[in-house]
Amino acid sequence: MSFNFVKEAGKFLCIGRNYVAHIKELNNRTPSQPFFFLKPSSSVLLPKDGPILVPKGVVVHHEVELAVVLNKQLKNLDPETFTAEDALDAIAGYSLAIDLTARNVQDEAKKKGLPWSIGKGFDTFLPLSPFISKSQIPDPYNVQLHLKVNGETRQDDLTNLMIFPVHQIFATMSSIMTLEKGDVILTGTPKGVGKLVPGDHVEAFISVDGKVIPESVIDVE
Amino acid sequence: MSFNFVKEAGKFLCIGRNYVAHIKELNNRTPSQPFFFLKPSSSVLLPKDGPILVPKGVVVHHEVELAVVLNKQLKNLDPETFTAEDALDAIAGYSLAIDLTARNVQDEAKKKGLPWSIGKGFDTFLPLSPFISKSQIPDPYNVQLHLKVNGETRQDDLTNLMIFPVHQIFATMSSIMTLEKGDVILTGTPKGVGKLVPGDHVEAFISVDGKVIPESVIDVE
Ligand SMILES: [Mg+2]
Ligand SMILES: [Mg+2]
Ligand SMILES: [Mg+2]
User: Fold this and answer.
1) What's chain B's average pLDDT?
2) Which residue in B119, B161, B163, B180 is a FRET match for A198, CA 20 to 30 A apart?
3) A216 CB contacts (<8 Å, ≥6 apart)?
């Protein structure tokens, strides 16, 4: 079980609104093409780092997401010719991620037309699992994402519900900013996001064909 | 002249709306406290990297800004007790930066309540000068920021016009995300922002008491 990929990550990029039922639960509009934002490396939470911090006055929501780790630079990809297979070739492996979000801060920013960096960027707002090898996830669209709070299932959906597949995400991102080897890309959250309070026990994991991947487990308070 | 600080930077943080006359020129509201956003390391433009890229359909605006480089970690600073002098102690040195902005992309994002990461994060959107030692800038509020396009002055103001001083910026940022040694923080742009087109010759530099700092010079197409 290794977290070495975290040190190698030059940036953490996150797709917003990539699952229809999640878009509906927050009354958002479905984007016509992928949009994304950055989370700072300072927001990464590893098992040794202690609990999720809930800042005073902040409503923290969990968003469980499949993250991919790049094994090469991707620059100005042509969306017409970059295929699903090309995308798989560019993936070093995976991680499970929770894109924690200060929902009230984000809502305020959205209303005022301000950046999302604060609402998405608090310390501890990016719990990550260890690195998951590609052999454990032969198909990134056959990944069941699970998140439980205090033993109760909150999120439980298959990644084949993604609106924009990974090759389209890579193509869009790479047309704006060069993706570097080691970059970590979160692919969006399915429905079921909700509030966390201090002391909540959060467990998240991936199963493939009903079998839990041990490396994928996140277990935090 | 050294750019080593760029490799050491874990993140690039930028304050928005920190000069009154700039807020007015874009018809924005003055924030009651500092807000900020992240630029990716992939957007840094060094002299060897070639020209500023103007993506198709994008209106690129220049924003010249004083950047500070941290020499230590700053975490949960108390805004009541963290002083201007404490902030100076935490500064390793400076750089001149141009926070290039895809203004039409940003305007659209503001209208739709979307993140600023795309509008601020294109490749080449962060030209930086070499590292400027603290001895050359004894007072960060006595820094004249200059930006010329094709020989014509577009921006020319003193940093004492900042709304939020550096210690307040550090305190606010550190209460949200831990600032790390090496992080680079852009302190906002004065009035005079405007459009760049391919082939424009952009010169930016700092003067202190009328004397140009050679390390501060940015000269790009
Ligand atoms: Mg998310
Ligand atoms: Mg780094
Ligand atoms: Mg700016």
Assistant:
1) 97
2) B180
3) A94, A95, A96, A129, A130, A132, A204, A205, A206
Q: Are B17 and B188 in contact (CB under 8 A)?
A: yes
Nearest CA in chain B to A121: B177
d(CA B156, CA A114): 26
Q: In degrees rounded to 5, what are phi and psi of residue B120?
A: -105, -10
- DSSP helix/strand/coil, A211: strand
Pick the residue of B114, B178, B181 with the most A CBs within 10 A to test the interface with A by mutation: B114
- Residues B4 and B131: beta-carbon distance below 8 Å: yes
For residue B108, the chain A residue with the least C-alpha distance is A113
Are A123 and A163 a contacting pair, CB within 8 Å?
no
Q: What is the DSSP letter of B112?
A: H
Interface with B, mutate which of A169, A177, A179, A185 (most B CBs under 10 A)? A177
Select from A127, A113, A92 the least CA-distant residue to A216: A127
User: Mean per-residue pLDDT for B169-196?
Assistant: 98
Question: What is the pLDDT, as a whole number, of residue B1?
Answer: 85
Is B46 near chain A, with CB under 8 Å? Answer: no
Cβ contact B185:B87 at 8 Å: no
Express each pLDDT in A17-57 by its tens digit.
Answer: 999 999 999 999 999 989 999 999 999 999 989 999 999 99
Please name each of the domains of chain B with its CATH number. Answer: 4-220 (3.90.850.10)
Spatial separation of the C-alpha atoms in residues A118 and B133, rounded to whole Å: 30
Instruction: Return the sign of the alpha-carbon dihedral for residues A184, A190, A194, A200.
Output: negative
- Rounded to whole angstroms, how far apart are CA atoms B54 and B34? 29
Give how far B178 is from chain A: nearest CA, Å: 6
Neighbours of B127 (CB within 10 A): 24
Decide if B79 touches A, using CB distance below 8 A.
no
Instruction: Give the C-alpha separation, B81 to A170, whole Å.
Output: 45
State how far the alpha carbon of A38 is from the alpha carbons of A10, A118, B40, B51, B106, in Å: 11, 10, 8, 25, 15
Query: CB contact, 8 Å: A53 with chain B?
Result: no
Distance B188 CA to ligand 3 centre (A): 5
Q: What residues sit around ligand 1, an ion, with C-beta below 5 angstroms?
A: A 63, 99, 189
Chain B's closest residue to A17, CA to CA, is B114
A35 and chain B: CB distance < 8 Å anywhere? yes
